[in-house]
Amino acid sequence: MDDIGHASFTLWDKECSEILGKSAARLRREVMEKTGDPNHFPEEIEAVIEKKGLFKVQVKNKPEGCSYNGTSSFGVLSMFRDPAILAMYKSNEGETMEFDELEDK
Q1: Would you state the pLDDT for residue 29?
Q2: pLDDT top residue among 2 and 98
Q3: Which of 3, 43, 55, 100 has most Cβ atoms within 10 angstroms of its Cβ?
Q4: The whole model's pTM is what?
Q5: Using an 8 Å Cβ cutoff, are 56 and 76 in contact?
Q6: How far are the Cα atoms of 9, 13, 24, 81, 99 from residue 30, in angstroms, in the given order?
Q7: For the purposes of burial, counting CB atoms within 10 Å of the CB of 55, is it exposed (0-12), middle (13-18) or buried (19 or more)?
Q8: Count of CB atoms within 10 A of residue 28's CB?
């Protein structure tokens, strides 16, 4: 996470298929066929921006002696979009709960 609270999440094929309805490999192939630009941002990803979801992520400590000081990327293990599950992780005011509060659920 960076100093203003933004984080990068890495979606592997399983999660990409669940969220977007197609594998990451298929999405990449279609982008290359349509645009030929490996840096093109797919429309399918635009469709999930601003949607609510709960990510279960993998967090690892930086390896001993690692000199990399850039931002971290978190591997997504699963994503939940069921409103009943999302409601379990909201405070009474509808604000995001702190991580330690989530662990107690």
Answers
A1: 92
A2: 2
A3: 55
A4: 0.49
A5: yes
A6: 21, 15, 10, 26, 37
A7: middle
A8: 15
